Amino acid sequence: MPKITWLLVDGAGLAGVGGRGPLGANLPVCILQVITSNIKRIADFLNSFDMSCRSKLSQLNEKLTMLERRIEYLEARVTKGETLN
């Protein structure tokens, strides 16, 4: 059976020997690894979500700019009395 190595975390969240975790409990290394892994997965998801949102907002901005230019063009033609046909 593999030996479980215990890593104690002090109140500041730093690795140490004999410290106590933020919740007042000593946590084994395997639990800390799971927590660290999950935090990394959340950070990766948030970074991916951020990039996806920025990309979609950029595409919407381009479409909006194109529509604004089209409206300005049509307004100028109407002001000059030109037909839109």
From TrEMBL:
PANTHER family: PROTEIN BRICK1. InterPro entries: BRICK1. GO terms for molecular function: protein-containing complex binding. This is Protein BRICK1. The lineage of its organism: Eukaryota, Metazoa, Ecdysozoa, Arthropoda, Crustacea. Its main location: cytoplasm. Keywords: Coiled coil, Cytoplasm, Cytoskeleton. GO terms for biological process: actin filament organization; cell motility; regulation of actin polymerization or depolymerization. GO terms for cellular component: cytoskeleton; SCAR complex. Gene3D superfamilies: 1.20.5.110.
